[in-house]
Every structure is written in C-alpha cells, then in structure tokens.
Amino acid sequence: MAEGDDLFPGFEPLWIEGPAGRWFGRAGGPETAPPLLLLHGFPQCHAMWHRLAPRLAETHRVIVLDLKGYGWSAAPASEHGANAYAKRRLGAEIVAVMERLGHVRFALAGHDRGARVSYRLALDEPGRIERLAILDIVPTEVQWTRIEAKPGANPHWPFLSRPAPEPEDAIRRDPDAYFEGLLRGWTAAGDLAVFDPRALTLYRQAWNVPERIHAMCEDYRAGGADGPDRAADRDDLAAGRTLPMPVLVLASEAYLNRDRPEPALTVWQRTFAPNAQGVQIASGHFMTEEAPEPTLQALRSFLAA
C-alpha cells in the first residue's frame, strides 16, 4: 500500500501526463457515474478531501488531483507566476487532464487555491462545467481590494507574492514552522487537532521540498496585486461575464465570513455568480476536515439538485 492509500478506500492512484508534466490524483466511484473533480487548497494536497471523497464516490466518479506544484504533481520552474501558475493556464491544463481521463464535462468543487483555479476555468470554459462549488474564497480582485483597504489583512498574500527568492528563502529556514503556523491560525480551534496525522504527513512531505516551496510562491505571484489572475478578474468584471452554471458558495463562519461587512455569498452574487446559492459552515478555513458532515451535506444536496 502506497502512502495515503488508506485515506481513500476504494480509490485507484492516477499518474496523468499533462501539458506541463505529470499530475497525481486518485479516482473512485462507479466509472459510469457523473464525474466530479475536487481541487485542494494551500498549503495542502489532495488528501484534504479524504473525509468527503469516499462518500461522494457513492453517487459520482470522483477525481481528486494534486494541483501543479503541490503534493506529488509536477512543479515546473517559473518566474513571476505567469509562466506556469496563472489560473487561466492551470484551468486549461486541468481540462486536458480530465479529457485524458475521458471526461469532457464534469462537476467541479475547489477549496482555497483550488477554488481560484475552479472559477477561472468555469469562466473561461463554461461549457465544461456542469456545476461549480466554491469553498471559502472571494474573487481575487475582491481579495486584493480588501487587503489594500486594510493593510495587514491576510499578510501571507503580499508576503508570498514578493519577488523571488525572498519568501522562498525565509520559508526554507523552517518550512514546518511556517506552514503549520498558517494551518493553526486558520482553524477555528487554533491547533492541528482537526487534521488526520496521515494527511499532515503528506502535507509536510510536499512543503519541505524547495521546488514546491517555490511553486507555492509562484502560485501566489500569479495571484499577486499586479498578477495575471487579478487582471483576468478585472477584464471579466468589466465585460460583465458571469458563471452560467449552478454555483454553490460555501463560506466558513470562523474564517472567511468572520468580521466581514459583506458575506462571501453576497460578494459572488454581485460579481461573477448572481444566481449563486450559499451555505455558511460553522468551522475555520479547513471545512472539509473541521466540519466534514455539514460540508458533505451541502455538497451532496447541491450535486443532486
């Protein structure tokens, strides 16, 4: 048994050749069932879905992927984020990966950075996405507007998007201390108790690799204040583009919606998803691990509608 297999009973490991190297993932559920792709967030990997994926696989063909630069997927060299980690490019690469698995259209759920790839993919290629679930983010343009209005908010955004190698060098001095500090700070309880030790092992393995630290920073540089992700948002907002498919917004009570004058659902309804429905989850940022039952219930209801 390979490391992490026991987190996904009944799933098969996948190595998929993509346009920019190999992607790692797992697939489970009936091959004839509707396909559902799950994308993880920062600073994690596909293992963050382990409490939901096997149960979602009762009704769907579930694919969980490691994003490029994370987990066990390829971490190609890049500069300034735009070369390899712009969400538009990642979305196009994921479409190619899903086609190689035989799925032209699919439902999509993404958390954190995976949610940023997800909504960009859905805006760029809406015909690919049956349903879209966005977990615990607001659009990149709104995120930067908030940071600029309140300097010091979400300090990891401006830090990780600083020019190389400043953040990489700082993190490499003690990756576990840096990333575990973020995990603790974003949970409702302020500790690591909600994380399965087996999942934590996989997170630590990845974030201790220098190439993956660089890839994570490049991910944030692509989403930086002057990066291509924000520019793509601005272009689409100016053009009035919206998401035509059904959209579910899940927002954490103790992280994303905490002390916010405008709830996440309202943000999405006034920007890219005017018809979105929403559920607030009583958890910190890592709702799939902190509050798996209400998160699963919300996703199941949405996917079955």
UniProtKB/TrEMBL annotation:
Domain of life: Bacteria
Alphabetically ordered keywords of this record: Hydrolase
Keyword Hydrolase set for record: yes
GO molecular function, one term: hydrolase activity
Start and end residues of each AB hydrolase-1 domain: 34-215
Residue ranges of the TM segments: none
Pfam families membership: Abhydrolase_1
Keyword RNA-binding: no
Name this polypeptide is given: Alpha/beta hydrolase
Organism encoding this protein: Methylorubrum podarium
